[in-house]
Amino acid sequence: MDFALQGGCLKILIVTDAWEPQVNGVVRTLKMTRRELQSMGHEVAIISPNGFRSMPCPTYPEISLALTTRSAVAREIDRIDPDCLHIATEGPLGWLARSVAMSRGWPFTTAYHSRFPEYVHARFRIPVSWSYSVLRYFHNAARHTLAPTPAIVEDLKSRGFVGPRLWSRGVDLKVFDPNGPRERGGVRPVFLYVGRIAVEKQVDAFLSLDLPGQKWVAGVGPERARLERQYPQARWIGVLSAPDLAALYRSADVMVFPSVTDTFGLVMVESMACGTPVAAFPVPGPIDVVGNSGGGVLDADLRTACLKALKTSREAARLNAEQYTWRNATEQILAALQQLPRSRDAIRTAETSRRVEGQA
Fold first, then answer.
1. Dist. CA 243–CA 249, nearest whole Å
2. Is the pTM of this model over 0.70?
3. Is residue 176 part of a domain?
4. Would you place residue 117 in the very low, low, confident or very high pLDDT band (cuts 50, 70, 90)?
5. How far is CA 250 from CA 61, 178, 258, in A?
6. Residue 175 CA to chain centroid, in angstroms?
7. 82 lies in the same domain as 52
8. H helices present in 85-173, as ranges
9. Which of 189, 268, 295, 340 could connect to 317 by a Cys-Cys bridge, CB 3.0–4.6 Å?
10. Which has the minimum average pLDDT: 136-140, 262-266, 322-326, 330-334?
C-alpha cells in the first residue's frame, strides 16, 4: 500500500544494526529520515544494538553487533506495534527482524546502503558473487529494496534483485552552506577527504597523490593509525559536529572522494552544498551525485580529477547540491512502505500455519 496516498499518522519501525554512537552515512541517513518523518506527523521507533547486549564487530570495533534472539526481537516488535516495518541493514538484527516478518506473512521494505560484497572482497578477498548471492536471498524477501541512486538500482536489477526502488539522500542546506565560519591556516590549495578511514574507502589512493598544497583528512576508522604514520605531512582531523564539518568543507578547495564501493557518498553532497567541488572516480555513486552537473570532476586518473576540480565553479557545486533535500528523499521511502496486518489473530494463524507446513 502506498502510504503517501493514505494520509494520517503512522507508527514506523526501523530496524538497524547501524546506530549511535556510530558516525557514518547510514546512521546520518536514518537520523535525518526519522527527523523528517516526525516533522510530517509520523511516529518513528528504532530497534538498534543499543537495546541489547552487544559485541564489537571483528576488524571494525566501532560497529556493535547485537547478541540477541529471534524471540527477543519479536517481543520488541510487538511492544512497539508498528503500522509498517523497514529493515535498514543486513546485520544480526536485520536477519532476525526479517525472520519474524516472514513467519508472520508481513510485507516489509529493506535498504541497500553499502556495497557490502565489494567491502568484504577488499577486506577478506571473498568472491563478490558469493556475497551478492546472500544479499539477494535477504533482500528478495522484501516488497522493495531501496537504493540511493538510479545506477545502483539498475545494478541490483542486473544482479537478480527483484524489487529495487529509488530512495535518494538529502543534505541540510541551512547547515551546509557556502557562507559561514572557515578554518584558518593551511597551505593552498587544500584537498580534503571526509569519511571512514578504512581499506574499502581507498584513502591511501588520495594521500599518495602528487598534489600541490596540503591534504586534510577528517574521520576515524581502522586504517587511520597506519595512514597517519605513513603520511605525517597531512593534517589529521577527527569526527566533527555538523557545523564544524561545514566550516571544514568551506575551507577546502576540493573534496576528494577516492572510494569506488559506495552506493551514494553523502559527503559529496555536503561538500557541494558548502560550495566545494568534488574530485572522484567515474563509478556508481559519483556518477549520479556529481556526473556532468558542474559540481566537480570525475576521471579515472584521480590526480587529474583533483587538479581540474580546482577550476570548477563553487556556485555550480552549490546549485547541484540544492536538488538533494531530506524531505524529497523521505517522501520516497514513505511511498514505498508497506502496511502490516492489524489483526493479532491473523498473525497467530499465519505463524501456526508455517509451523505446520514446516513439520509436514
1. 10
2. yes
3. no
4. low
5. 31, 6, 19
6. 19
7. yes
8. 92-103, 116-124, 128-139, 150-158
9. 295
10. 262-266
